[in-house]
Structure formats: C-alpha cells, structure tokens
Automatic annotation (TrEMBL):
This is PHL domain-containing protein. It comes from Trifolium pratense (Red clover). The lineage of its organism: Eukaryota, Viridiplantae, Streptophyta, Embryophyta, Tracheophyta. Residues 1-81 form the PHL domain.
Length: 82
C-alpha cells in the first residue's frame, strides 16, 4: 500500500535590531510551504504562505498543483538551498 506524503517546510527570516550597544536577532517573518500528494491522481498540491495544516486539507482541491512528486522534490530542494 502506498502512503501519500505531506511535506511542511518553515522559513524564518531574522532581523537584526540595535538597542544601545547590543545587536539582537529577532525573528521577523515565518512562512510555510506545504506540499501534499493527492491520493486520486498522484499530483501534488502546493501552498506557500501562512496556513495551518488542518486548514490545508480542506483547501487542497483548490490549490495550484505540480504534476508529480519528482517535481515537488525539485521545488523543495530549490527552496531549501537558498
């Protein structure tokens, strides 16, 4: 039996804030990329932005899709490498 995969990547951008003589690193923005394989046809639904995993499941049919998991893996590698 094949299991459909869901990949969740979180990206956090840090901002440096100077307070007096001290430089503090503060998380500025958090963005998620969620990709889930559809069991019906093998395509991969994609969402990039702020959404919870539970909300993602309901909206999966209305999201942009990639043709297969190979392209999803290539896209994930590009995002992680930067």
């Amino acid at each position: 039996m094949n299991t459909c995969k869901m990949r969740v990547s979180s990206f956090i951008w840090n901002e440096r804030v100077v307070q007096g003589n001290v430089v503090t690193v503060v998380p500025k923005c958090r963005t998620r990329m969620i990709m889930a394989e559809k069991p019906s046809d093998g395509t991969v639904a994609l969402h990039y932005g702020d959404i919870d995993e539970s909300d993602y499941i309901g909206a999966e049919d209305h999201l942009p899709t990639l043709p297969n998991t190979h392209f999803a893996d290539l896209l994930a590698d590009q995002f992680i490498s930067q």
